[in-house]
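Incident log, structure service

09:12 report received: a user says their structure output differs between two submissions of the same chain.
09:20 pulled the input from the user's history:
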Amino acid sequence: MKTGRTPAYIGIGANLGDAQDAVRRAIALLAALPGSRLAGQSSLFSTAPVDAGGDDYVNAVVRIDTELAPADLLQALHAIEQDFGRERPYRNAPRTLDLDILLYGEARIASASLTVPHPRLTERAFVLIPLLQLDPLISIPGQGPAHAFVPAVAGQSIRKI
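09:34 re-ran on a clean worker, output below:
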């Protein structure tokens, strides 16, 4: 039975304050988004920052099935980040919380505010490995099976918490 909901995969990361607690609380908030339900969540992972300094990150990926349009979902994610005190002083700055739309159904979106699939999804172990934990056979629209990109991230530090 079709629900009118689209599967969306959200990357979650934090490395300031109590990062594990922030990621867990963010998962609960994502599950409570209007017209959405939590359909799966990865383990929490500890990862070294990529192209940045600072403490290690706590990362996870969740799947929500949502009625929210991509732009509305992005707005909701930004509101959650703001509630956690997210600041963006410079690119790849340490974060209290970072939420990214990795995939939105089979959509390919390229707008000024949103690119889906996430442009660095295939280059970052901290999203690719948790995504594959949720769905080992997932395919990235326009790019192919996600597991094909694992060798490219094999050198990146990632550890299940």
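09:41 both user submissions now match this output. Likely a transient worker issue. Closing.
09:42 reviewer note: The beta strands are 6-14, 36-41, 45-47, 57-66, 98-104, 109-110, 115-116, 139-140, 144-145, 158-160. The first strand starts at residue 6 and ends at 14.
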